[in-house]
Each structure stands twice: as structure tokens, then as C-alpha cells.
Amino acid sequence: MEAIRPHLDGARAEAIRWLGDWHPLVRQIAPGEGAARPRASRSPHLSRALVSPASLHAFLLHYKISVLLPFELPAVRESYELTLRHEVKELLALDRALAAEDWLRPYAEDSRVAGRLHLERLKPLRDQRGILRYISAVEAGEANGWHLLVAGVALGVYALPLRQGLMDYALHTFWNAVGQATGPLGLQSGEATGLVNQLAADLPQRIQAMIPAAKLAAV
């Protein structure tokens, strides 16, 4: 089976290519980082070390089912839509509301770090006043700058197709997470590819179900 990889070009590459490298999931797996984090700041599913391809698959599947599909991708989509409509107040309200979400708590510290790093890339967009207001709120401590909201903002700023953007986001996260664990677990290239393909097999259908039918023609 051919590897499923994000297809990156032009503006979408600019908006997406850096997401996976700093995704909180990847940072928790990263040798010397995630393994050494205090338990309270790590995913509860990392209570056992990733010691085999099977444990890596179980960890990523748990993340996909319990975080990515029910919470993370819908939040990216909402941030994207608010950005397209220039609804900065609503974006700030969403940012603050996420601080109370239990699913985000284990990733919160890394999510803020990643989001703020990504926002630095959007600062040169001087014509995007709404986004600059969001950046100012984050810098003033009035918002968190969660990585997933910044991902949606980036997709919206570049007016990129939502469905493909969500797919790129998920795939880039999986590829980078698997890449972090490949060396320590001794994964061969074919094993890594097979693992990502298993995780991504149903993503097109799952993502399409997140987008209202009236919008499908535009995404």
C-alpha cells in the first residue's frame, strides 16, 4: 500500500509544514523531552513508556480516538471559520473556553509554546488586522494561543481548503510522531509507513463528516 503523506504545495505548505514538528503530541514523544516530563504535564496514556511498535500504535490510536477526532480537529475547523469571518472576539472567547477543557490539559504547556511559535510566523501579515489583534492578546496574556487554534487561523488567513487542511494537519502530526519514535523503537521504514496508513485509513471519511454538507462544495 502506498504511503499516505500530506501533499504540500504553495500557500498550504507555508501554513501547514511546520505544524507537526511542534505539535504537543510530538513533543511528548520526543526523546529527552516527553519521557522526562512530570506526569501531570503529560498525556495520561503515556504513563507507560513507548517500548514497542505495538505500544506506539496503541498510544497514537488512543490520541486519535479520544483527542484528535472528537475535539482537536473540530476546534481547528471552528478557528478556521472564525478567521474567515473576521470574528476576533469569538476567536478569543474560544481560546479562553478551551482552557477549561480536560482533554487539552495534559498538552496545555506544549500547546501554548507551539501556538506562540507559529504566531510569530503570522506577524508579518500586516494587512490581517484581526489576526494581529489575536497575537496582541496572546502576548498580553489575555489569550493562550493554543496550537490548534493557530492552525485554524493559518488555514483561514491563507483561505485554504478546509478539508485538505484538516487532513494535512492530522497526517503531519502522525508522521512526525512516528518519526520521533522510529529510532528508539527500531522501526523500519515499511513499519512506520504501515503504522501511519493504519491510523489514517478512515480520516477522509471522518473529516468529511465534520464539515456541514452545504460547505463541502467549497472545501
Can you characterise this structure?
The protein is mainly α and 219 residues long. It has one domain (10-37, 52-218): Orthogonal Bundle (Urease accessory protein UreF). The protein is 64% helix and 0% strand. It has eleven helices and no strands. It has helices spanning 10-16, 19-22, 24-29, 53-84, 88-98, 108-122, 129-139, 147-157, 162-185, 189-200, 203-210. α4 (53-84) packs antiparallel against α9 (162-185). The chain is globular, with a radius of gyration of 17 Å. The two termini are 27 Å apart. 40% of the residues are buried.
Distance between the termini: 27 Å
| H/E element sequence | HHHHHHHHHHH
Tell me the helix content. Answer: 55-70%
Q: Quick one: CATH superfamily? A: Urease accessory protein UreF
